[in-house]
Amino acid sequence: GAVVSQHPSRVICKSGTSVKIECRSLDFQATTMFWYRQFPKQSLMLMATSNEGSKATYEQGVEKDKFLINHASLTLSTLTVTSAHPEDSSFYICSASGLLGTDTQYFGPGTRLTVL
Amino acid sequence: EDQVTQSPEALRLQEGESSSLNCSYTVSGLRGLFWYRQDPGKGPEFLFTLYSAGEEKEKERLKATLTKKESFLHITAPKPEDSATYLCAVQAFTGGTSYGKLTFGQGTILTVHP
């Protein structure tokens, strides 16, 4: 149990385009989903927290208009990077919690975004 | 502000050489401490959750312990496949709805040589 998937695993796009990343909890209903960003050789940085049917809560310094988060169901959350620029290139990882009513976060495999 | 410090930053072991990783934390009220393993280019894999001082959990060659100020991840007779980055994170009680936010340490890069 506790499998979280992400799609795509890698994406390369041109500067100015938008990219959507999907995060799915495959075998449990996720009451809360989280989006993180990780730079090389650094730890995870929380970007935002989302609950199904509610607006996402963004961490300080994260532009909500640039990183759009939608949590449409208990098994799906999406992160859209709008008008991507090279500085948005990073490893984006989602996590989901809610299995058996616990707060344990289970992570997806990550998405490598490269903006040219 | 919650803080998590992991040491050492990197650890090289010979296969079979047991050791411990440290996670020191300061948090207003600890709701849970989490250990994850992360392989290069992958998302973190959940290992343990500890909730109160004195608690211990084991899984294969790994054993996690918790005190009021720190947690240890003991690795007994490690194998090369245990090589990974080990991440520690804390979750605090915030009152109301915290949504389970985690604060991560920088991680310990473990390399086990055959």
| Strand and helix order of chain B | EEEEEEEEEEE
Mean pLDDT of chain A: 93
- By DSSP (H or I, 4+ residues per run), the number of helices of chain A equals 0
Largest sheet of chain B: 6 strands, mixed
Helix percent band of chain A: under 10%
Shape of chain A: globular
Average of pLDDT of chain B: 93
Decide which structural class fits the backbone of chain A: mainly beta
Structural class of chain B: mainly beta
- Low-pLDDT parts of chain A are none
Q: What count of helical segments of chain B does DSSP give? A: 0
Query: Largest interface by residue count?
Result: A-B, 26 and 21 residues
Shape of chain B: globular
Query: Could you name the ranges of chain B where pLDDT drops below 50 across 5 or more consecutive residues?
Result: none
Helix content of chain B: under 10%
Strand element count of chain A? 11
Query: How much strand content do the residues of chain A show?
Result: over 45%
Order of secondary-structure elements of chain A: EEEEEEEEEEE
Oligomer: heterodimer
The end-to-end span of chain B amounts to 41 Å
- Span from first to last CA of chain A? 37 Å
Walk me through the structure.
The complex is a heterodimer of chains A (116) and B (114). Chain A is mainly β and 116 residues long. Helix content of chain A is 0%, strand content 52%. Chain A is built from no helices and eleven strands. In chain A, strands 2, 4, 5, 6, 9, 10 and 11 form a seven-stranded mixed beta sheet that branches. In chain A, strands 1-3-8-7 form a four-stranded antiparallel beta sheet, with no helix packed on it. Chain A starts with a strand and ends with a strand. The mean pLDDT of chain A is 93. The N and C termini of chain B lie far apart (41 Å). In chain B, strands 2, 4, 5, 9, 10 and 11 form a six-stranded mixed beta sheet that branches. In chain B, strands 1-3-8-7-6 form a five-stranded antiparallel beta sheet, with no helix packed on it. Chains A and B meet through strand 5, strand 9 and strand 10 of A and strand 4 and strand 5 of B.
